[in-house]
Amino acid sequence: MSDHQLLNVAAHRDLRVRRERSVELGDGVMTALVVPDEFRQVQASYPILFRQNRERDGFVPLALFGFDAGENLFLADGRWDAPYLPLSIDIQPFLIGGAPDGDTTPKAVIDMASPRLSSDDGVRIFDREGRPSPYLEVILERLGALDAGYRGSAAFMDALDRYGLLEPFTLEVTLDDGSTNRLVGFHCIAEERVAELDAATLGRLNADGHLLPIYMAIASLANLPALIARKNRHG
């Protein structure tokens, strides 16, 4: 169970964060939330798919790491085997929250239940004088980028819905050992529908900053054969 606390030097001065990557540290996940602002970096390594959110009133974009629940094919020997780590993974055990008094200003929150936290192993959050460490300064920048990405993603998802640019995506993979994996419940960008858009619509999407992430999401599906190859190597 999570234990979210607003980050402050008085309570968290001596905490450290373990930066290696493993299932035991919470990296055993099949997908991670991504935002359109990072699609260019994400598409270099991972397929980008879309899934209905828990409230089922819209979709969220996800980077795909495996084919089964809890499977992350990018974990290898205590590291993450890809050049880019999605922001929602990279910032852990931190997240964005608001103040208890209802202040809407984004605040840095730490999950005290995270297995990444330690008192004697890992990178310091604050230095010995109580100042943010270089690591924390980077994390705060990434939290800000993620917050801005969250805020901008609603307009992007609205555009996909307005122009009918999502379609169901199902993938059935027969592995080298003869077993079959079936990926269901996801959507992807409908490439043919994008190609049918008229110049005026393409112009609006481009002016709103949506056209690039649309094409990045389409391009990301080229990573599926490499992900299947990882699955075959992992067995």
UniProtKB/TrEMBL annotation:
InterPro entries per UniProt: SapC (IPR010836)
Name listed for the protein in its UniProt record: Multidrug transporter
Organism: Sphingomonas hankookensis
